[in-house]
Design brief:
This protein is mainly alpha-helical. The protein has one domain. About 75% of the residues lie in helices and about 5% in strands. The protein starts with a helix and ends with a helix.
Length: about 140
């Protein structure tokens, strides 16, 4: 069972990551340094399905996070869920308010933003910790 202060940790840091991503996005739009405005989502789904798909994904993620936090007190898993939630909410709000996500980092083949990086790192940490936990159980 997870303690109450870890719920606060989860909430406060997710909010900090969300605010940081939103602030950078605001600066990018204000300074006209936008590399690409991504109006689509994974696999180039168009906006009619975008809101429904994102709403289902966010709802499923929140439910999954609540169950995972209740049964797991691992700080690294909590931190990974925090990264995913902060970045995901930032991208979701950008899509609703601005019609797309501001991708201001231009790598060779990818255009991304801080929220995308947070989501990627969070997913990587989450699965890394789950696999590590599964391997530890096998040895004991």
């Amino acid at each position: 069972m997870i303690s109450r202060h870890k719920y606060w940790f989860f909430s406060i840091f997710a909010f900090i990551f969300f605010i940081l991503c939103q602030f950078i996005s605001w600066l990018v739009y204000k300074s006209d340094q936008l590399v690409f405005k991504n109006e689509k989502i994974v696999f180039f789904f168009a906006p009619p399905y975008l809101l429904l798909l994102m709403s289902v994904a966010i709802f499923a993620f929140i439910i999954f996070s609540i169950f995972e936090l209740k049964k797991n007190s691992n700080n690294s898993i909590i931190f990974s869920l925090t990264l995913i939630l902060g970045g995901g909410l930032s991208n979701f709000i950008d899509r609703i308010l601005k019609g797309g996500v501001a991708d201001y980092l231009d790598l060779i083949y990818w255009k991304m933003n801080l929220a995308d990086i947070l989501i990627f790192i969070g997913i990587f940490l989450f699965f890394f910790n789950l696999l590590r936990r599964r391997q530890e159980k096998r040895f004991f």
